Amino acid sequence: MENKIIYLDNNATTAVAPEVFEAMKPYFCERYGNPSSIHRFGGSVAADIENARRQVASLIGASYRDKDGNAAEIIFTSCGTESDNAAINAALQAKPERKKIVTTAVEHPAVLHFCEELVRKGYQVELIGVDGQGRLDMEALKKAVDSDTAIVSAMWGNNETGTLFPVKDIAAIAHEAGAYFHSDAVQAAGKVKIDVDECNIDFLSISGHKLHAPKGVGALYVRRGILFTPLIFGGHQERGRRGGTENVTSVIGLGKACEIAEKSLDEEYRYLSGLRDEFEQKLLKTIPRIRINGDLEHRLPGTSSVSFECIEGESILMLLDVFGICASSGSACTTGSLEPSHVLRAMCIPYSAAHGTIRFSLSRYNNKEELDFVAEKLPPIIARLREISPYWEEKQ
Ligand code: PLP
């Protein structure tokens, strides 16, 4: 186990699955035609893109097919961030008389920072808070959503704690006020069952690199019938809804990754949650003063957010790194900042615990041996750091 990388940072990014890589290969040097070309060489690639679109649609329960049998509700994008921005932008364009966006205090910066920009442009943004387990304040949500609300945006599963939001109920609240509902499912897609039809979702964001497809590709589901104004104007690609020649290789990869995820969803859920629960139990038994963050009943299967009181998360990460163990403190995008993450702050996790929070995020490529190794290395690391922590003494 020594000298081996133990990668427990799968919410930051995942390895491309070997089957996905194989599916992509022909599209680099052999089948490199432009899907928009008239000739057959390009046209056959266009057909393969439509197949990838159906694979994505199938994973998220988007059952609509147009007269040609295509899953026209899926738009390929460059990443989850673009999908989030494009969804909110489209809703505001479709309901120009409404000037309000309701979202949550624990969204990813892909939503929150875009909303900050919208505030600068004159829109009103209301952030709904969460409780100590990261559960959304549904009463506050009901009060906030009104006839001026164009869109409600709430993530499916949180990237830091894994907490799942009751998206179907949130969508119903949005629709009652005549607003659209968008869900950022970047972390949830491929890990928990998603059914956009059943849950009445209007917009849903996905990112390739979180589910064993490459970086730099994403998808946005847009319910049919919604007037969609693109974020990126250009050629007629993606039925005129997203300009720019498609990232063909990655789109094929995303389709394949979705197909694999759909087939193994239940089995992988059981596998990952089993590994994670056993790991957490070991830590709870061997390390005093720790807490597991999030809604433990409704969580993404492979996410474990653990707060170790009175020490710095960065120091833990550095000592784990010595053993080749990769994890993360807060979300990847906020690493480098010493402030506890906005998610933990919104949950009112005390500072002494929030500072020492590590996110372990698992994938199908992790195994029990690896997690046992991490669970064995952690207690002496934590004890050593607490020995030199002034806060630990104060607390005794
Ligand atoms: N939304 C969530 C919940 C995420 O976790 C991330 C990435 O960490 C994103 C959006 C952004 O996705 P991408 O890296 O594809 O832009």
Polypeptide structure, described:
42% of the residues lie in helices and 13% in strands. The strands form 3 sheets. It has a 7-stranded mixed sheet with strand order 2-8-7-6-5-3-4, sandwiched between helices. It has a 3-stranded antiparallel sheet with strand order 9-10-12. It has a two-stranded parallel sheet with strand order 1-11. The protein has 396 residues and is an alpha/beta fold. It contains 15 helices and 12 strands. It starts with 5 loop residues before the first strand and ends with a helix. The site of pyridoxal-5'-phosphate (PLP) has 13 residues, from helix 4. Residues 79-81, 84, 108, 110, 155, 159, 184, 186-187, 207, 218 line the site of pyridoxal-5'-phosphate (PLP).
What descriptive keywords fit this protein?
single chain; 396 residues; alpha/beta; 7-stranded mixed sheet; 3-stranded antiparallel sheet; 15 helices; globular; binds pyridoxal-5'-phosphate
Concise summary:
42% of the residues lie in helices and 13% in strands.
Helix count from the secondary structure assignment:
15
Strand content: 5-15%
How many individual β-strands? 12
Return Rg in Å: 22 Å
Biggest sheet descriptor: 7 strands, mixed
- Content-based structural category: alpha/beta
Order of helices and strands: EHHHEHEHEHEHEHEEHHEEHEHHEHH
Helix fraction bin? 40-55%
**Ligand species:** pyridoxal-5'-phosphate
Through-space gap between termini: 35 Å
Instruction: Estimate the global geometry from the Cα principal axes.
Output: globular
Mean pLDDT: 96
Order of neighbouring strands in the sheet with most strands: 2-8-7-6-5-3-4
Poorly predicted regions are none
